[in-house]
Amino acid sequence: MALSRRVEITAPDLTVTGYDFLRTEIHTGLTMAALADASKANPAKMKRNQTNARKAYDTARRFMNQIPLVPERYIEVREGLKKLRRVLQKLGEDL
User: CA-CA-CA-CA torsion for 56, 58, 61, 67, nearest 10 degrees?
Assistant: First the structure.
């Protein structure tokens, strides 16, 4: 006999989960960008980390306007994206 469980997700749950997702992507992007900057002596490693930082940036941007956020959280996410964008540009990304 198969067990099944119905999971109900409410709009506030999605908002919190989405916010956490965006924060995690931005934090990961900033970490990858810092690793790229620190690994300039190894071009392959630098490029790999820079590419991962860019993927995090692109993903957060793509989902940002699809997740309902209260104004304070929206501002926090927007500022995090701005910071990540600046760091990526310093690494040579064309944004």
Answer: -60
What are the CB-based long-range contacts (under 8 Å, 24+) for 61-64?
A: 63/18, 63/21, 63/22, 63/25, 64/22
DSSP code for 91: T
Number of domains in the chain: 1
Residue among 95, 93, 15 at smallest CA distance from 61: 95
Range of the domain at 59: 11-90
Q: Is 33 a domain residue?
A: yes
Model pLDDT for residues 21-69, shown as the tens digit of each residue: 999 999 999 999 999 999 999 999 999 999 999 999 999 999 998 998 9
